[in-house]
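Take a look at the protein record below and flag anything odd:
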Amino acid sequence: MSCTNVFTSSYSHILSHWDIVPSGHVLDLSLAEAGFLLYTAYFLYPILTFIPARKTLLMAAATAGTMFSFYLLYVLKFVLGDFCIVCTSFHVVNFIMFYLSWKEYKSGNNNVEKKLR
């Protein structure tokens, strides 16, 4: 039950772990940096009303975050054989944000949907 094992593993920089970018590359974000970007997008969503199809973008980000959380929970439990309360808490938040994003997407105020009708 240690967060250290998770944050010091190669999975803490997932893009270099998957060989998408070299280790140390500017795009080789840590999980914390990627999470910061995701939660910043969630925070700015209500403010940035001028972005076209923003509900669709929010839903895409929430879906990606949820899928990534499922993957990371699998890695945490079955690959690393560990449990991290911090990581698990963020995954729970991602699942909640997916649910709330889905409700927002289905709320019927989507400008793109109105234009298509």
In short: Residues 3-116 form one domain.
